Amino acid sequence: MRPRIHPSILSADFVNLEHEVGRIGNADAVHVDVMDNHFVPNLTFGQPMVERLLEVTALPLDVHLMIDDPDRWAPGFASAGAASVTFHVEGSADPIRLARAIRAKGAFVGLALKPGTPVEPWLASIAEFDMFLVMTVEPGFGGQSFMSETMPKLRSLADAVEAAGSDLLLQVDGGITTATIGIAAASGANTFVAGSAVFGSDDPNAAIEALRVAAAP
Ligand code: DX5
Ligand code: ZN
């Protein structure tokens, strides 16, 4: 599979978002970080922003919910038109039930794991999800350093996905640059979120292409 690059608008200019998404035509999706100042110590935006972004970009929206009680809020993002809705297992009362509710609204569903959260309890349930997100930083902020200690978890997930013959997407998020993306790709990731590496560049589309090249084996 060609490496998928999902720029995170967390590193974009929030007062010029229409312009900013217009600068990433090479991307495979726009990664939208929703933070509630409770699940993580930072606050961004919510469902109205997703609705408005859908009006100004043809790219799919990959919504990453870093919020308490996703069981209550996540299906609304799917109804709003997000292509995928990813929620954190640490915040959900019933991840399988929530995954089914998101799919029932017509979106793909992702399960996100913080760096310290083990994946083993979910390996038998990969068919319930379309994507797993292995966080490669503690969620909350852009511009942090890639945590390579998360790679064994990614590898065990990739092995389980391959054994199941599944086409599940394996996403990494945090500290992805041309220097680190190859490490994550070698451990089985095929979908890469990059905030500062894309929006910190003078030429975001060139930065996206450089990440794709660096991800290739
Ligand atoms: C962090 C967010 C990331 C963030 C990544 O909690 O989930 O999506 O934007 O930013 P970089 O690529 O700068 O590490
Ligand atoms: Zn994210």
Automatic annotation (TrEMBL):
Keyword NAD: no
Binding of substrate, residues: 8, 64, 140-143, 173-175, 195-196
Family listed: Belongs to the ribulose-phosphate 3-epimerase family.
UniProt entry tagged with the keyword Manganese: yes
HAMAP family, per the entry: RPE
Name of the protein described by the UniProt record: Ribulose-phosphate 3-epimerase
Enzyme Commission numbers on file: 5.1.3.1
GO biological process: pentose catabolic process; pentose-phosphate shunt
Cofactor(s) the record lists: Fe(2+); a divalent metal cation; Zn(2+); Mn(2+)
Residues forming the catalytic site: 33, 173
Residues that coordinate or bind a divalent metal cation: 31, 33, 64, 173
GO MF annotations, alphabetized: D-ribulose-phosphate 3-epimerase activity; metal ion binding
Biological role stated in the UniProt entry: Catalyzes the reversible epimerization of D-ribulose 5-phosphate to D-xylulose 5-phosphate.
Cofactor binding note: Binds 1 divalent metal cation per subunit.
Domain of life of the native organism: Bacteria
Catalysis performed (reactions): D-ribulose 5-phosphate = D-xylulose 5-phosphate
Pathway where this protein functions: Carbohydrate degradation
GO cellular component term of the entry, any: cytoplasm
Keywords: Carbohydrate metabolism, Cobalt, Isomerase, Manganese, Metal-binding, Zinc
Organism: Naasia lichenicola
Database matches in Pfam families: Ribul_P_3_epim
